[in-house]
From TrEMBL:
EC number: 1.1.1.60
Highest taxon in the source lineage: Bacteria
Lineage: Bacteria, Bacillati, Actinomycetota, Actinomycetes, Kitasatosporales
Leading EC class: oxidoreductase
The family this protein is said to belong to: Belongs to the HIBADH-related family.
Species assigned in the record: Streptomyces cremeus
Name of the featured protein: 2-hydroxy-3-oxopropionate reductase
Record bears the keyword Oxidoreductase: yes
Length: 296
C-alpha cells in the first residue's frame, strides 16, 4: 500500500489534465472530477480514478487540488451543499492552483478553517508546456506548516516552488507574473511586426534577440507561435483578460501605478472584443498587425 496522500483533483482542463497525470507518474492515487466526461476518461486511461461529482472526488482525499478558470468557478466548487468544504474530511489540505483574486483566496481560507480544512493558494506560471513538462513555477500563499506538507505534491508539478507569504500572497505574485508576461508578449509582438515590415529574416532575428538581453522565457516559449502564426490556445486571451483585470484592480487598491500594464490590458480587451478571446495570448500579434494596417 502506498504511504503517499490520496489526491482529489478538480478541474481537468488544459493545465489540470497534464498536472493530474504528473501526480499519477509520481505515484499518487488521483481521483478527478471535471465537467467534461472525455477529460475524466483521459485521467482514467492514465491510471487515475474518475468521480461523478465534486463530493465523490474529495470525500476520501488527503489533499485536494483545484485548477479552474477564475474566482466564480472556485467559489462554485468550494461552497454549497455539493462543494468541497461540505464534503472534504477534517484535516484535508486544499491546494487551489487557479488564478483568482487575492481576496477570494483569503475568504476561502477563512471559511475552510471553520471546517477544519487547511488551504494554500498556489497559482502557477509556465503554461501548458510547463504543466506537461512538470516545470511550473508555483507561487504559494498560506501557513508554513501547510506549505511544508504540500511541498512533495507540488514538486511533482513544478520546479520553482516558493512560499510568498500569508493567504492571498500567491495570487498577488501571480497577478504580477501576468502583468510581466502580457507586457513581454506585447513587446515581442511589436518587434515581430517591425522586423517583418523591415524585410528582416524573422527567424534569424528572433534567434539572435533571444540570445541577448532581449531574450526571455516568453520569447523562447512563444517564438514558434509568432513565426507560424499558430495561436492554438496554451493560455487563452480570455483568461489573460481576466488576469489583467485582477492585477489592475489590485494595483489600484494598494495605490500602485501600472501605466504600461493599463495600456496592455486595454489591448488584450480589444483583441477579445474582436473575437480572438479563445486564441493563445501570443495572438496579441494579431492586434499589432491590425494597428499596422495588415489584414488578419
Amino acid at each position: 500500500m502506498s504511504t503517499l496522500p490520496t489526491i482529489g483533483f478538480i478541474g481537468l482542463g488544459i493545465m489540470g489534465s497534464p498536472m493530474s497525470e504528473n501526480l499519477l507518474k509520481a505515484g499518487y492515487e488521483v481521483t478527478g472530477y471535471t465537467l467534461e466526461q472525455d477529460k475524466i476518461d483521459r485521467l482514467v486511461k492514465a491510471g487515475g480514478k474518475g468521480a461523478g461529482s465534486i463530493a465523490e472526488a474529495v470525500r476520501d482525499a488527503d489533499v485536494i487540488v483545484t485548477m479552474v478558470p477564475a474566482s466564480p468557478q472556485v467559489e462554485a466548487i468550494a461552497y454549497g451543499e455539493d462543494g468541497i468544504l461540505e464534503n472534504a474530511k477534517s484535516g484535508a489540505l486544499l491546494i487551489d492552483m487557479s488564478s483568482i483574486t487575492p481576496q477570494t483566496s483569503i475568504d476561502l481560507a477563512k471559511a475552510a478553517k471553520d471546517k477544519g480544512i487547511r488551504v494554500l493558494d498556489a497559482p502557477v506560471s509556465g503554461g501548458e508546456a510547463g504543466a506537461i513538462e512538470a516545470v511550473l513555477s508555483i507561487m504559494v500563499g498560506g501557513e508554513q506548516a501547510d506549505f511544508d506538507s504540500a511541498k512533495p505534491v507540488l514538486e511533482a508539478l513544478g520546479k520553482t516552488i516558493v512560499l510568498c507569504g500569508p493567504h492571498g500572497s500567491g495570487q498577488t505574485v501571480k497577478a504580477a507574473n501576468q502583468l510581466i508576461v502580457a507586457v513581454n508578449i506585447q513587446a515581442c509582438a511589436e518587434a515581430v511586426v517591425f522586423l517583418e515590415k523591415s524585410g528582416v529574416d524573422l527567424k534569424a532575428a528572433l534567434d539572435v534577440l533571444n540570445g541577448g538581453l532581449a531574450g526571455s522565457t516568453v520569447l523562447t516559449r512563444k517564438k514558434d507561435n509568432f513565426l507560424n502564426r499558430d495561436f492554438a490556445p496554451g493560455f487563452r486571451i480570455d483568461l489573460h483578460h481576466k488576469d489583467m483585470g485582477i492585477v489592475t484592480d489590485a494595483a489600484r487598491n494598494v495605490g500602485a501605478a501600472l501605466p504600461v500594464g493599463a495600456v496592455v490590458a486595454q489591448l488584450v480587451a480589444s483583441l477579445r472584443a474582436q473575437g480572438d478571446g479563445g486564441l493563445d495570448h501570443s495572438a496579441l500579434l494579431r492586434a499589432v498587425e491590425r494597428l499596422s494596417g495588415q489584414q488578419v
